[in-house]
Amino acid sequence: xxxxxxxxxxxxxxxxxxxxxxxxxxxxxxxxxxxxxxxxxxxxxxxxxxxxxxxxxxxxxxxxxxxxxxxxxxxxxxxxxxxxxxxxxxxxxxxxxxxxxxxxxxxxxxxxxxxxxxxxxxxxxxxxxxxxxxxxxxxxxxxx
Length: 144
Prior knowledge:
Layout: E1 2-7, H1 15-23, E2 28-34, E3 37-42, H2 45-55, E4 59-60, E5 63-64, E6 66-69, E7 78-83, H3 91-99, E8 104-110, E9 113-118, H4 121-131, E10 134-136, E11 139-143
């Protein structure tokens, strides 16, 4: 799966509209809008590359988009590996589980596992301790 950063979004754009734009190039697994930017997760590398090269600097709802591969700029966060993630699970569900213990800076699912970045190490350790063997969809996750 490929994570794409989309910047310069018009405030009127919905996640569904943005998803439809990217689905012209291939399978979109997730599409999350945060203020005036978004992250789009596409299944295949070649489809993501095509979307990025075609949509970068294109006009969408009156603004010019910045479309590029997402790079993690997380500093001083604790990264947690979450294993045995069901194909039915979403990043929103995982984020919600971990946010009970503290601030989640980033959360990404990659195939059948995920990475959760938490702001404070103590909160991350608490989450790991309490979330091992937690049911999520049709499987029990483990955190390390």
